[in-house]
Write a structure and sequence with these properties.
The complex is a heterodimer of chains A (394) and B (112). Chain A is mostly helical and 394 residues long. Chain A has 16 helices and 2 strands. In chain A, strands 1-2 form a two-stranded antiparallel sheet. Chain A starts with 5 loop residues before the first helix and ends with a helix. The radius of gyration of chain A is 36 Å and the shape is elongated. By secondary structure, chain B is α+β, with helices and mostly antiparallel strands. Chain B has a single domain, classed as Winged helix-like DNA-binding domain superfamily/Winged helix DNA-binding domain (Arc Repressor Mutant, subunit A), CATH 1.10.10. Chain B has a 3-stranded antiparallel β-sheet with strand order 1-3-2. In chain B, strand 2 and strand 3 form a beta hairpin. The longest helix of chain B is centred in the last third of the chain and has 25 residues. Chain B starts with a helix and ends in a 7-residue tail after the last helix. Classes of the chains: A mainly alpha (394), B alpha+beta (112). At the A-B interface, helix 2 and helix 4 of A face helix 3, helix 4, strand 2 and strand 3 of B.
């Protein structure tokens, strides 16, 4: 009697799979049996291949797959065929309506919502429950049955959460978050610890668990992460400046002091310069192509969204045009009356205090106004500057 | 050696009976045991054995235990209490069947 080598055992296992033994448990049973026969009957290890091809036909009449088919047949239950057909039809229906629905939604064609609704309802209440029944019939371990149950519940909840999110129905976020939490804290540990107990499923379980973990992370990042703190800060800051402008406007309405010609000339120069910069910004957004500015402005709503960042000024790299702007703002500011200067904080070009992660920093005026600012915020700030200048002279 | 049709009808009875007498057995062991006990007259075909074993396990009549033997896994089968009842029912039924067959076919039992 000889003992088969690791390679020979692996060879038989792969051959069995190739010959149509898809049920894992059956494959391992047959493998052990064939190995026993070979180890009993084989005298010379060199004859392994020959003898294996001779032994195999004892297991069937026509082909090896018969054993698989016979096993499946014996393991079937009442309504097996009807349920199987329903499952396949519902799967096809779900896939088709979902893809078509998504296409309709992208194209803004009517009927998209109905299709998506139908597909997800079919998935949750027909396909997944039947799949659960089939899968639980294949196993005897209570632990695995519980895992399957938990997986099915998760599948249903996350599909419904997706539906709620697509439809903008209330409660979508809480459903989505709770299903991700459920996946992370309940399903993943259960799946992992029941899977690694069995030798034959250990590796697959580890790989699948890592994939599930990555998927949770991606889904979470996709739906829960907000735009950066920096963008939020910039938005707030521009709003704050707008409020400051109203103070200037009020002062302007009550101030009767005559405006000097020198101041008017300086202010108009500044307004022209700001307009130039704004035009430049818009043209830059259009990849530098020369186009009618008015056309661009009309399209601005479509072109610019909050993800389309434009950094007007990179940190530490002041552009000459901005320095020129700063100088002009500075000289205009020096011509203003004291109460005006107090209100026109936007025009004060002194270095500014800024809090970054609660650390006080001094940064330059142009950096404060234009570094790491989105395109739309840069445009807003220029508008505010222009308004402030108008309030000083008109 | 008997024809496979004859064996097929009694396969379940043979498996259950053997497992009531032995604590746990694996597939190959079952076939060898039957072969030895019958002097090679009855040989369980693997093509019928494994589907039946899996079905019995699925119905909860048998329990299994997977053991690592050298470089492969071996599945041991053991009978459950409900399986024992079924086994004795099957054996009784078969004894009765043989008695009926003897009468039907008018056979003289060979007492020699």
């Amino acid at each position: 009697m000889i003992v088969l080598s690791e390679e020979q055992v692996q060879y038989i296992l792969e051959d069995l799979e190739q010959k149509g033994i898809e049920l894992e448990e059956l494959r391992f049973s047959l493998l052990d049996h064939i190995c026993c026969v070979l180890e009993e009957e084989l005298n010379d290890p060199a004859n392994f291949q020959d003898h294996y091809t001779k032994v195999l036909p004892r297991f069937f009449k026509r082909e090896l797959r018969e054993i698989q088919e016979e096993t499946e047949l014996l393991m079937r239950f009442k309504n097996y065929y009807a349920m199987k057909r329903t499952m396949i039809i519902s799967a096809g229906f779900t896939a088709f309506t979902f893809v078509t629905g998504a296409l309709f939604k992208i194209m803004h064609w009517p009927g998209a919502s109905v299709m998506i609704l139908l597909s997800i309802v079919t998935l949750c209440f027909i396909f997944l429950p039947i799949l659960f029944i089939f899968k639980t019939k294949e196993t005897n371990s209570t632990r695995e049955k519980i895992t399957l149950g938990v997986a099915t519940v998760f599948g249903i909840v996350i599909s419904l959460a997706t539906l709620f999110k697509i439809m903008h129905w209330p409660g979508a976020n809480i459903m989505w978050l709770s299903s991700l939490g459920f996946l992370f804290f309940v399903f993943l540990p259960l799946f992992f610890f029941s899977g690694i107990r069995k030798k034959e499923t250990k590796l697959n379980t580890i790989i699948s668990s890592v994939l599930i973990l990555v998927a949770i992370g991606l889904l979470f990042a996709l739906t829960q992460l907000r735009s950066s703190k920096w963008t939020d800060f910039q938005e707030n800051q521009t709003d704050l400046q707008l409020i400051q402008l109203t103070g200037l406007a009020e002062l302007h309405a009550t101030d009767t002091m005559p405006v000097s010609n020198e101041l008017k000339r300086k202010a108009n120069e500044l307004i022209d310069q700001i307009t130039e910069l704004k035009k430049g910004l818009i043209l830059h957004m259009n990849n530098g192509e020369q186009a009618e500015v008015s056309d661009l402005l009309r399209d601005l709503g479509k072109e610019i969204n909050h993800t389309n960042r434009f950094f007007f000024l990179e940190s530490g790299k002041p552009r000459p045009r901005l320095i020129e702007l700063k100088e002009n703002v500075k000289s205009l500011y020096s011509m203003l009356s004291t109460p005006m200067q107090e209100k026109a904080t936007v025009l004060n070009t002194e270095n500014r205090k800024k809090y970054n992660d609660s650390i006080e920093q001094m940064i330059s005026w142009e950096e404060d106004m234009f570094s790491y600012v989105t395109f739309s915020n840069a445009l807003r700030k220029l508008n505010q500057l222009e308004l402030a200048v108008h309030f000083c002279i008109d | 050696m008997y024809s496979s049709e004859l064996i097929k009808g009694t396969l379940k009875t043979i498996i259950l009976k053997l497992l009531t007498e032995n604590e746990k057995m694996y597939g190959y062991e079952l076939t060898q045991k039957v072969k030895d006990m019958t002097g090679g007259k009855i040989q369980l075909t693997e093509g019928a054995l494994y589907p039946t074993l899996h079905a019995l396990e699925n119905q909860g009549i048998l329990t299994t235990e997977v053991v690592n033997v050298g470089n492969r896994l071996r599945k041991y089968y053991a009978i459950t209490p409900s399986g024992r009842e079924i086994a004795s029912e099957k054996v009784n039924e078969f004894t009765d069947f043989i008695a009926t067959m003897i009468t039907l076919l008018d056979l003289k039992p060979n007492l020699g």
